[in-house]
Design goal:
It is a single chain. With 535 residues, this protein is α/β, with parallel strands linked by helices. The protein is built from 21 helices and 19 strands. The protein folds into three domains: 184 residues, Dimethylsulfoxide Reductase, domain 2, CATH 3.40.228.10; 122 residues, Rossmann fold (3-Layer(aba) Sandwich); 111 residues, Barwin-like endoglucanases. The strands form five sheets. Strands 14-18-15-17-16-19 form a six-stranded mixed beta barrel. The chain has a five-stranded parallel β-sheet with strand order 3-2-1-5-6, with helices on both faces. The relative contact order is 0.14. The N terminus is likely disordered.
Length: 535
């Protein structure tokens, strides 16, 4: 994507967490870091205390928005015009890094041609961000030497999520904020080992280390190692799986540690897809909403009962050691091995270290990482040899594809916007109490924050005659739910904000069926709803 495809395709940060406190500027777009990633959020607050400038782009007034030098409360779904408008100003005032652009990028003219159409007045009308703030932010980001840019699901969970990411990359390349400490484009992963799962090849289009399934050389290497023939074409993404389940093409699923009934968009569609399967296995810690549909539930081991590795959002591979014996009697990898044997393919691994060693031997970016080295401390990939120290920041000399590729990207409106029948905009996200947990099954969490508190602006609360603590019924074109209300000016008028953590108020019964065409990520951040007071 925009020349940084391998990094952003993996969702990994280009730079490191410990660079944050010494950065001169933090540009946050679509990330409520102190709640969704509180450890990194603490580092950001430390940087602010040390004098860093802070720009926050978010429709909602978050904790970091309160601390920001500039808070751009844009209209949901207008990230591309905002970023194009900032780049328009940077080019207009000659603040771009021409040396970086000339030496390390291509297709610059296409970007210039596109952003020429995003004059400040036009962008202000589209986004709701004042013209003077656009100028101030453009000048500040472009002229600050050590400027780090961060984004999370507020950028990716849109019908144009891929284009949003490419726009972010355009901005960083335009200003030369890549390939050095204290800079970079830094997507923060949503859960504790999402990065590790993707690195290991738990994606339908790649093997470990993002080696493409369609690449004959890569495929031949894995076929030789595993002694089998492998498919030439990518597998199905999650959204595609459920579509195939609906049509009867896909007949069975094995779901490990995932609860799509609660967490996937348009969850009524998910439920009906599960009902149409011939056979469903759920490998879980709890009898989740998804597990209730299972023909067989396999008991899972938690992180505290497991040996292995986790890889953090900064590409750091770390050892995980079990604190207790697994309560089910087996760690998850052992259960998978037993299943594989019964299905006709014997796996003879005897330890997680053996699995890692094989995987690293087939994966150039991880070849220099082994359990002996991980005893001392975590190591950041790429780490190609045993002598290599790991990589604190990426793209120091060149990009994966050689030169970074600018792309001219125009505004793509959300798949659904409020109208007369459904006049409010629903946006969803995480809350601090569920950090790294998407399930409602922890008594400790329940004791602190036991029920959903959906946020609505005081102006809308007056119109609807509702007060904090009262209930409303929220309805979209896909479903409905009842939720408790918190009246607050954290959200703009016309918006309802919900977390997706509570089965009693399942926000994803409402969310849009629209998907990003590349990643098949749901548009969790924008859909149209109506709100009615419940007596």
């Amino acid at each position: 994507m925009a020349g940084l495809a391998t990094t952003f395709g993996s969702g990994a940060m280009t730079n490191s967490i410990n660079e944050i406190p010494d950065a001169q500027l933090l540009f946050l777009i679509g990330t409520n870091t102190t709640e969704a990633h509180p450890i990194i959020g603490y580092k950001m607050k430390e940087a602010k205390r040390k004098g860093a400038k802070l720009i926050v782009v978010d429709p909602r007034r978050t904790e970091l928005a309160n601390m920001a030098d500039y808070w751009l409360s844009l209209k949901p779904g207008t990230d591309i015009p905002l970023l194009n408008g900032i780049m328009h100003i940077i080019l207009q005032e000659g603040l771009h890094d021409q040396k970086f652009i000339s030496e390390r990028t291509e297709n610059f003219e296409a970007l210039k041609e596109t952003v020429r159409n995003y004059a400040p007045d036009t962008v202000a009308n589209l986004t709701g961000v004042p013209v003077e703030d656009l100028y101030a932010v453009a000048r500040l980001y472009a002229t600050t030497d050590k400027a780090m840019l961060f984004y999370t699901l507020g950028i990716t969970e849109h019908i144009c999520g891929t284009s949003n990411v490419m726009s972010v990359a355009n901005l960083a390349m335009l200003t030369g904020h890549l390939g050095r400490p204290g800079t970079g484009v830094n997507p923060i992963r949503g859960q504790n080992n999402v990065q590790g799962a993707c690195d290991m090849g738990a994606l339908p289009n790649v093997f470990s280390g993002y080696q493409k399934v369609v690449d004959p050389t890569a495929r031949a290497k894995f076929e030789e190692a595993w002694g089998v023939s492998l498919p030439e074409n990518p597998g199905l993404m999650i959204a595609d799986m459920f579509e195939k389940a609906h049509t009867g093409v896909l007949k069975a699923m094995y779901i490990l540690g995932e609860n799509p009934v609660l967490t996937d968009p348009n969850s009524n569609h998910i439920r009906s897809g599960l009902e149409k399967l011939d056979f469903l296995v759920v490998h879980e810690l709890f009898l989740t909403e998804t597990a209730e549909y299972a023909d067989v539930v396999l008991p899972a081991a938690s992180f505290a009962e497991t040996e292995g590795t986790f890889t953090s959002t900064e590409r750091r591979v770390q050892r995980v050691r079990k604190a207790i014996k697994p309560l089910p009697g087996k760690e998850n990898w052992q259960t998978i091995i037993e299943l594989s044997k019964r299905m006709g393919y014997p796996m003879n691994y005897t330890s997680p270290e053996e699995v890692w060693t094989e995987m690293a031997s087939l994966t150039p970016s991880l070849a220099g990482i082994n359990y002996d080295r991980l005893e001392a401390k975590g190591i950041q990939w790429p780490c190609p040899t045993n002598e290599h120290p790991g990589t604190a920041f990426l793209h120091a000399g060149s990009f994966t594809r050689g030169k970074g590729f600018f792309q001219g990207i125009d505004h793509i409106p959300p798949g659904e916007m409020p109208d007369q029948e459904y006049p409010y905009l629903l946006s969803t996200g995480r809350i601090l109490y569920h950090y790294n947990v998407t399930t409602p099954y922890s008594p400790g969490i329940q004791s602190m924050w036991s029920k959903e508190a959906s946020e609505i602006n005081p102006e809308d609360a007056v119109k609807l005659d509702i007060k904090t603590g009262e209930k409303v019924k929220v309805t979209s074109r896909r479903g409905e739910c009842v939720t408790n209300i918190l009246v607050t000016d954290r959200v703009p008028s016309g918006m309802l904000w919900m977390s997706f953590h509570y089965s009693d108020s399942p926000a994803n019964a409402l969310t849009s069926a629209a998907l990003d065409p590349v990643t098949k990520t749901g548009e969790y951040k924008v859909c149209a709803v109506k709100i009615e007071k419940v007596s």
